[in-house]
Amino acid sequence: MKTTFTALALLYTIAASGIAYADAPNSPPDNSVVQELKGFTHHYAQANGIRLHYVSGGSGPTVLFIHGWPYSWYEWKDVLPKVAAAGYRTIAIDMPGYGDSQWPDRGYDKRSIAEDIHQLLGQLGVKEFYLVGTDIGTMVSYSYAAAYPQTVKKLVISESLIPGFGLEKSMDPDVQGFWHFGFHRQWEMASELIEGQEYYYLNTIAWTAGYGNAGVTDEDKKVYMRTFGAPGGMKASFGVYSTLYEDGKYNRDQLAKNGKLKMPVLVLNGDNGIPQRLLLPGVKDVAVNVTSGYIKDSGHAISENQPGEVAAAVLNFIKK
């Protein structure tokens, strides 16, 4: 009940605040200018009927990074150069509905997003790679590894439960679950309720509250708000929540059909993020070779809070 009251109080505050953020970047994604990382380039590709934006740099074995909510490829900006410098080709994508990828009105189930990415990697000639996901990106990463296990050499997942294996309970506010899952699932209504207050909403529930905001600077927020603050940006970002129960059923069916993942899996959590005790049991239900670790002095957004520690953990794992 407490979480429900918290959610209602936040929505009331947003509706009553009247705060305007006219200075937030708000250019449409088709005409946007993305910031450049030294040694990295920005690319667009059509994959599975969806325009995908991705950033790549470095050379060597491929490591693919998938971001969470409310972020974009830019969540990995401080991790990518460190992994590339260690001798890897690093790629970070904007999932459909995020950043400078297309914002479709459907296709947000995690299996479809995994297929989008699979077709993109096929175009890039990537036959096997290391896969790293966080938050919603964890859900997509698991779906990808389950669908194409022969292509994923090792899997790193963090800061999210897997649909069908523990997530549903954590979505239930009646048992102290996270209230925002149910709100975001009503993606059209949710986006209408916070229209004009996108910055306030994101800053309150994600960037400066809950798990801490270390590493998420004002400049970072401007980068994210360029698309989250654009017309339709928040609705598109909520699309991945609208299919979570469908995702869970699909994952359970796939496990029954194909069995557990065989590749090594690393579970990472911030020591002030989502408790690992919530995530680990579900991962062990779907994978046979699981190790785990913590990112010290970090909240939920581990790659924003402690990018050096995240890069080191990923490199240590994939080099074993």
Tell me the name of the CATH class.
Answer: Alpha Beta
CATH architecture: 3-Layer(aba) Sandwich
Q: How many β strands by DSSP?
A: 8
Count of separate structural domains = 1
Number of helices: 14
Task: Provide structural commentary.
The protein is of the alpha/beta class and 320 residues long. The protein has a single domain, classed as Alpha/Beta hydrolase fold, catalytic domain (Rossmann fold, 3-Layer(aba) Sandwich). Helix content is 42%, strand content 16%. The protein has 14 helices and 8 strands. It has an 8-stranded mixed beta sheet, sandwiched between helices. It is globular and about 45 Å long.
Structure summary:
This protein has 14 helices and eight strands. It is an alpha/beta fold. It starts with a helix and ends with a helix.
Topology:
Layout: H1 2-17, E1 40-47, E2 50-57, E3 62-66, H2 80-85, E4 89-93, H3 110-123, E5 129-134, H4 136-147, E6 152-158, H5 167-170, H6 180-185, H7 187-193, H8 198-207, H9 218-228, H10 233-238, H11 244-258, E7 265-270, H12 276-286, E8 290-295, H13 302-305, H14 307-319
Parallel strand pairs: 3-4, 3-5, 5-6, 6-7, 7-8
Antiparallel strand pairs: 1-2, 2-4
Helix pairs in contact: 3-4
Name the features:
globular, 320 residues, 8 strands, 14 helices, Rossmann fold, 8-stranded mixed sheet, alpha/beta, 42% helix, disordered N terminus
